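Field log, afternoon session.

UNIT: design team B
ACTIVITY: writing a sequence onto a fixed backbone
BACKBONE:
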């Protein structure tokens, strides 16, 4: 079906939000050009833990949106049943053995939402999900969420771009960074660093951690809580771990080809220094400590080796909630800025494309609109 409100759109950013939105728009018969400052997934999507979940506690609208995102991945997994880049093997989490342990409260909350959750002792874990060193689990126990999974975002983005191209979409990656063109109070397209100008009826800004500063250039405000993130990818390893682990000292996520992705807030805080030129210095001893923490929670405590390290901003709005939809002060200008990009990717693309194409507001995005920051 073709919508008549607009006929063309520019998307700045070829991460999961930008590409997902682009695919949804070309499915509606809209001409779409995606502009990116390098190859697809070269930003936050390329260094995401990509744990598909709605675990723990958050606002009810945010939970519903995440659950809708997981639903879309379930549909995708049926289309690609043998994909090595999308798995639903569950997630296991536990907290430290101190006064901050919230496992009991988190379990009660998840059960109250009918979120599939099992409270397990260390002795129970081996019979539910393999590959753990149960000695790492604290006395308060762990929560296993059977419906959780993971996705390799660069691969998914590549799959989506194949459809995008087949449906006539255009991807531009050779003209540097782009900025939104606003003339007469309206977004009319984008201009790249090399001077290329692209006109369209609507512009979607999906540049991850760069979104708040880019909207500020047009006098708009989105509160920014973006921290620096560090993701370590290991070399391939034969190991039985299949679930995503979120533990007090490390998160471990299986990845394609027998590799694992690792991250932890403390590792980013202690191991990454931002240089004056905006680049990053990485402390090798902290990376090695992160590898050691991962080995401690894995069965047989394997020797893990670094294959690659990703560093950069992790997109998080100032209030922690997604920012999705139109900048109402500038007609034709839309944004997508949020944590949980992997979980939300397909559903954000679907709902944002609906709004761009029809001009209507989707009720599931009611609490996530950018203008909420103007009243603060």
């Amino acid at each position: 079906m073709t919508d008549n409100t607009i006929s063309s759109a520019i998307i700045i950013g070829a991460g999961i939000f930008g590409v997902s939105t682009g695919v949804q728009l070309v499915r509606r018969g809209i001409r779409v050009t995606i502009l990116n400052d390098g190859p697809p997934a070269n930003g936050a999507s390329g260094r995401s833990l990509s744990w598909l979940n709605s675990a723990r506690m958050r606002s009810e609208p945010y939970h519903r949106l995440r659950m809708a995102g997981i639903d879309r991945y379930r549909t995708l997994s049926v289309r690609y049943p043998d994909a090595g880049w999308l798995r639903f093997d569950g997630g296991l989490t536990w907290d430290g053995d101190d006064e901050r342990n919230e496992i009991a409260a988190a379990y009660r909350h998840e059960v109250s939402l009918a979120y599939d959750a099992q409270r397990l002792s260390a002795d129970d874990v081996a019979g539910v999900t393999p590959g753990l060193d149960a000695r790492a689990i604290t006395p308060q126990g762990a929560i296993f969420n059977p419906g959780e999974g993971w996705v390799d975002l660069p691969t998914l983005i590549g799959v989506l771009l194949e459809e995008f191209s087949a449906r006539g979409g255009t991807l531009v990656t050779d003209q540097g960074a782009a900025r939104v063109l606003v003339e007469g109070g309206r977004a009319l397209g984008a201009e790249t660093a090399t001077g290329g100008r692209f006109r369209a009826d609507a512009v979607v800004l999906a540049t991850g951690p760069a979104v708040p500063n880019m909207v500020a250039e047009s006098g708009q405000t989105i509160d920014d809580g973006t921290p620096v993130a560090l993701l370590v990818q290991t070399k391939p390893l034969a190991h039985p771990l299949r679930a995503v682990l979120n533990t007090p000292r490390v998160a471990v996520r299986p990845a394609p080809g027998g590799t694992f992705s690792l991250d932890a807030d403390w590792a980013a805080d202690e191991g990454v220094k931002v240089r004056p030129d905006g680049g990053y210095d990485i402390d090798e001893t902290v990376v090695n400590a992160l590898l050691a923490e991962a080995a401690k929670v894995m069965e047989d405590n394997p020797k893990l080796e670094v294959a690659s390290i990703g560093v950069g901003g992790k997109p998080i709005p100032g209030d922690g909630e997604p920012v999705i939809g139109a900048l109402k002060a500038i007609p034709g200008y839309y944004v997508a800025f949020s944590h949980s990009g992997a979980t939300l990717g397909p559903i954000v693309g679907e709902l944002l494309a609906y709004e761009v194409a029809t001009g209507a507001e989707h009720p599931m995005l009611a609490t996530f609109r950018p203008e909420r920051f103007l009243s603060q």
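LOG NOTE: The domain at 8-46+154-222+319-375 is CATH 3.50.50.60 (FAD/NAD(P)-binding domain).
NEXT ACTIVITY: expression trials, pending approval
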